[in-house]
């Protein structure tokens, strides 16, 4: 059987990239890897000086709730307040008007002295009634 010396069209190329293109991609990958290793070394990675979460200084966050503005999901975050009680607080505010002070929360069914004291550290300070315009003494 004679060999056909005429070139036959290929259905698909054997490689996606030519050898020169493959070398260029390999070079770029190596440069990127070397850059990352250099950055790591300059930042003190080899000496263990990178940020360690376990050794980061603890920070405190102050969480306060404005009882006359907060929606019920914010009240749920307070100790001793569940979804039902939080919705009661918002409903009381809607029907009876804004709370004059923190002690006014006692008008909500389910909030007693113990619950109020547990909430108090997380409640935003309210202006005194004498400082509010239109308030009665």
Task: Tell me about this structure.
The chain has 4 helices and no strands. The mean pLDDT is 83. The chain has 137 residues and is mainly α. Among the domains are: 19-48; 72-131, Orthogonal Bundle (DNA polymerase, domain 1), CATH 1.10.150.310.
Keywords:
137 residues; mainly alpha; DNA polymerase, domain 1; 4 helices; 36% helix; 0% strand
What is the helical fraction, as a range of percent? 25-40%
Global morphology: elongated
Alpha carbon gap, first and last residue? 116 Å
CATH domain class of the domain at 72-131: Mainly Alpha
Overall mean confidence score, pLDDT: 83
CATH superfamily of the domain at 72-131: Tex RuvX-like domain-like
How many helical elements?
4
What layout of secondary structure does this protein have?
Layout (H helix, E strand, L loop, with lengths): L18 H24 L29 H5 L6 H14 L16 H7 L18
Brief overview:
The chain has 137 residues and is mostly helical. The chain has helices spanning 19-42, 72-76, 83-96, 113-119. Among the domains are: 19-48; 72-131, DNA polymerase, domain 1 (Orthogonal Bundle).
